Amino acid sequence: MTRVLAVLLTLAMALTATPALAQDTLEKIKSSGTLVIGTRTGSPPFAYVNKDNQWVGFSIDLVDMLVKPEVEKAVGKPIKIEKKESTPPTRIPLLSSNSVDLIAGTMTDTPQRREAVDFSLTFFYTGAQFMVKKGSPIKSVNDIAGKRIASQQGSTNAKILREKYPQAQLREFPDQPAAFQALLQGQVDAYTNDGIQLYGLKAKAPKPDDWDVVGDFYSEEPYGMAMRKGDAKFKAVVDAGLKNGLEGGKYFEIYEKWFGPKGELPYPMTPQVKAYLMKQIGK
């Protein structure tokens, strides 16, 4: 008898859970009045907790100023934004378990990840470049033959250089500080990483004007907002918010706030990147 009751209880719990799991994201948000985003507490300037203990950042502003209004229009009522910490290992599980509705951080849109989640339009685009001492003959990936190039062990950048540019003298370091220190001390001729990280290093260097970030991207890192796979209605709403921001210029105002000359991390938008972003919306 006890076993029968246990089976019935299990079935009841499964049936009770089914509607919540089947419920689409917009219905979930309409019911709760809250859009739950997974983001970061220590990834400036995309998402972090500042000195005033406020959760802020570029990705968060995009959700608050561009995505939220479109979600409110779709559900027909004002909503709140709730933030939860999401790290690379927990991002997809948080989405799959309905714990968050949207990942807004620094998640690169890759074919492998698209097997598990859907991505929004790209909201930030970066790629591998080089940091060099001002006046260096290295201006792009075409100038690295015979040069000592620092990278981080196990990085995508190191893999690309090893496979596609074997004429360079690749020197791998355990982490970014070690690689940058090698550049500072003249042990290498250049340090390669994602452009956004290189600009961060330049900004924090003892003498920022001594260093240049050079070259077009030789790898691509398009960041998108991730959501549960197959929820076409919610994806359309998120994309509409980003599209409106790009078309109307609000996106570029937000970008300037965080990445402009007076922003948290100066990272000028190149014509190449702007063209990439606008091409997504047919512009």
What does the secondary structure layout of this molecule look like, with pairings?
Elements: H1 2-22, H2 25-32, E1 34-39, E2 42-43, E3 47-49, E4 55-56, H3 58-75, E5 80-85, H4 91-96, E6 102-103, H5 111-114, E7 117-126, E8 128-133, E9 148-152, H6 156-164, E10 169-173, H7 176-184, E11 190-194, H8 195-204, E12 211-214, E13 221-228, H9 232-248, H10 250-259, H11 271-279
Parallel strand pairs: 1-5, 1-6, 9-10, 9-11
Antiparallel strand pairs: 2-3, 3-4, 7-13, 8-11, 8-12
Helix pairs in contact: 3-9, 3-10
Explain how this protein is built.
It is built from eleven helices and 13 strands. It is an alpha/beta fold. The protein has two domains: 18-125 and 223-279, D-Maltodextrin-Binding Protein, domain 2; 128-214, Periplasmic binding protein-like II (D-Maltodextrin-Binding Protein, domain 2, 3-Layer(aba) Sandwich). The protein has a five-stranded mixed β-sheet with strand order 10-9-11-8-12, sandwiched between helices. It has a three-stranded parallel β-sheet with strand order 5-1-6. A three-stranded antiparallel β-sheet has the order 2-3-4. The longest helix has 21 residues, at 2-22. It is elongated and about 60 Å long. The chain starts with a helix and ends with a helix. Mean pLDDT is 89; it is low at 1-22.
